[in-house]
Amino acid sequence: MTLKNTADRWGPVSQAFHWLIVLLILCLAIVGLTMGELPKTPKYFWVYTAHKSTGITVLALVLARLAWRLYAGKPDPVPGTPTWQERIANVTHWLLYALILAMPISGWLYDSASGLRPFRWFGLFDMPKLSPPDETLRNLSHEVHELGFWVLVALVAAHAGAAFYHHYFQRDATLLRMLPRRSPRMVDNTPAAPAIPVVNLPEEPPHVP
Ligand code: HEM
Ligand code: HEM
User: Fold this and answer.
1) Best of 51, 111, 142, 150 to mutate for ligand 1, by most ligand atoms within 8 A of CB?
2) Which atom of ligand 1 approaches the CA of 25 most closely?
3) What is the CATH number of the domain that holds 40?
């Protein structure tokens, strides 16, 4: 078994990166959207530190994932995919990469420019600051962090919607090849037979005057 991506499927390393990052971003979103409601007392500061530490972990994972992607390439498009769909998918994927980099970087900048004490990454070591205290940068990075999140939500909705559309309506291997289990749909990587079988009609009878 190869760890790299092959012509017809994503390899285990790319799959692990994809689903681990999805899971961590889901946790970051839930905690990020709710932590503002917590009382601003030292008792709850660990929630902010956990959000920040997990966010920095995502940054490291995305950089490693991009390096792996450059090394391992990507599978060929599923046969039968129109060129326009392939182009939209490519643009969406690179926008997703840009956003999952922009989210942790803007969070880190926001934390840095706020002039707070350095936070300890999961209590292990102090994270360096990216900038000295700076009100303008603080506001700007906060905006990017908040707005970027909603752009990410919209893109992920379109992206996941497209994956499910391919799976349930096109009935091709797009989603299955990002999952660990092999499937008969992936053997030749072509769309499965339509749900309604095509009846082989007999040839037209010879014309009898
Ligand atoms: C992929 C990574 C990240 C995601 C998806 C994420 C997501 C979020 C979300 C959804 C919010 C709530 C925004 C709102 O109020 O509408 C938030 C808030 C926040 N995030 Fe992140 N975050 C990430 C990384 C980071 C990092 C690395 C840091 C700091 C090192 C950070 C620091 C913060 C802070 C301080 C807030 C509170 C902002 C406020 O006071 O309004 N985040 N994050
Ligand atoms: C239920 C949610 C999701 C599903 C079902 C899903 C499914 C998929 C599938 C099937 C592919 C491969 C597409 C292909 O072969 O052309 C893919 C690629 C990708 N996904 Fe997702 N995804 C989901 C959520 C996410 C999220 C939350 C993110 C990021 C925030 C994300 C980022 C990406 C990226 C960047 C790629 C492109 C990989 C590359 O070209 O290197 N996905 N996804």
Assistant:
1) 51
2) 5
3) 1.20.950.20
202 domain-assigned? no
The answer to whether 44 touches 38, Cβ cutoff 8 Å, is yes
The secondary element (H helix, E strand) that includes residue 85 is helix 83-113
Q: How far is CA 160 from CA 1, 51, 92, 117, 130, in A?
A: 28, 24, 11, 38, 33
Q: 159 in a domain, yes or no? A: yes
Residues 138-164: tens digit of each pLDDT: 999 999 999 999 999 999 999 999 999
Q: How many domains does the chain have?
A: 1
pTM (predicted TM-score): 0.90
For 102, the domain range is 12-183
Q: Which atom of ligand 1 is nearest to the CA of 29?
A: 10
